[in-house]
Amino acid sequence: MGKRYGIIKPGRTDTNIRYYGNDELKKILNISLLNQHGYKISTISEMNDEEIAEKASSVGLFSQNGSTDENLLLSLIDMDEQLFNSTFSGLMMKRGFEDTIISCIFPFFHRIGIMWQAGTINPAQEHFFSNLIRSKIIMATEALNKHPETSANVALLFLPEGELHEIGLLFYNYALRARGYRTIYLGQSVPHDSLYRVITICKPDLIITGMTNPITSNDFMSFSQQLCEFAPGLNIYFTGPIPAGVREMLPPNARTVNDLLSLMHITQKA
Q1: Strand boundaries in 22-95, DSSP class E
Q2: Among 156, 164, 257, which residue's Cα sits nearest to residue 201?
Q3: Dist CA 30 CA 36 (whole Å)
Q4: Domains of the chain, each with CATH number or no CATH
Q5: Which tens digit of pLDDT belongs to each residue from 14-27?
Q6: Cα–Cα distance between 48 and 75 in angstroms, integer?
Q7: Using CA atoms, how far apart are residues 57 and 240, in angstroms rounded to an integer?
Q8: CA 189/CA 165 separation, integer angstroms
Q9: pTM score
C-alpha cells in the first residue's frame, strides 16, 4: 500500500531481511485507517509522520468506532494494558465472553503467530498479550459461580510434557464449566508417568489434551496410544494440529478436534 509511494521504510537485518519496527507498524495502521476513511494514498504520502498520526486520531482510531483489530494490535505493539482492556470490554458488551474469545481473540492469536514468524513483533510482546488473555479467562471461570451436580460428568484437562501454551486449554475449562461439567484442570507440561494415577483417582468421564509444538507422526501415535491404554473406556479428545495420516490409525477411543467450535459442539452433547 505505502511501498510504491515510499511512505514506509522498513529496516534490514545483517542478512538483508526486511523487518518493521513498532513505529513503522503503527504508521501502517494509521495509513490503513486513513485510507479506509477516504484519504488517497497519494495524499497520505505527502503528510509527515505527525500529520498522519493526528489525522488518524481525528477519525477515531481510539474511539468505539475504531477497528477492533487495529486497537488489539496497537495494544500489543505498545504493550498498552489500558487500551487492551477497553477494547476487550467493548467486545464483551457486543458479543459476550465466549464469542469474543472464539471469534476475535483466537483468530488474533493466529495473526500474532504470523507476525512473530515474520519478525514484526518480539516474544515479550506476545507474552504480554497472552498473559492478559490468560487472566481474562481465569477471571471469567471464577465468576461463573456454577456448582455442578454431584452426578455431573467430569472432564480432565492437561497438556503433555513440554507443552506450555495453555490458553486454549484454559478456555476449554471455562466452556465445560459453563456447560455444567465438573473439571479437573492439571494445566501445562504434565509428566506422562503421573497420568495413570491421576486418572485412577479422579475417574473422569472424558479427557481433553492437545499440543501446539511440532510433533512427528510416530511421537504422536506413541503418546495417543499410551494415553488411550490408560483409560480404554473414555473418550480422549486431542486438540490442536494433528500430524497428517495418523487419524485412521488412532485407538478407537481417541477423538481429534479441528477447532474450538467443534469441541464445544461435541462436549455439549456428551
Answers
A1: none
A2: 156
A3: 10
A4: 1-63 (no CATH), 67-143 (1.10.1240.10), 149-268 (3.40.50.280)
A5: 565 555 566 666 67
A6: 23
A7: 39
A8: 9
A9: 0.74
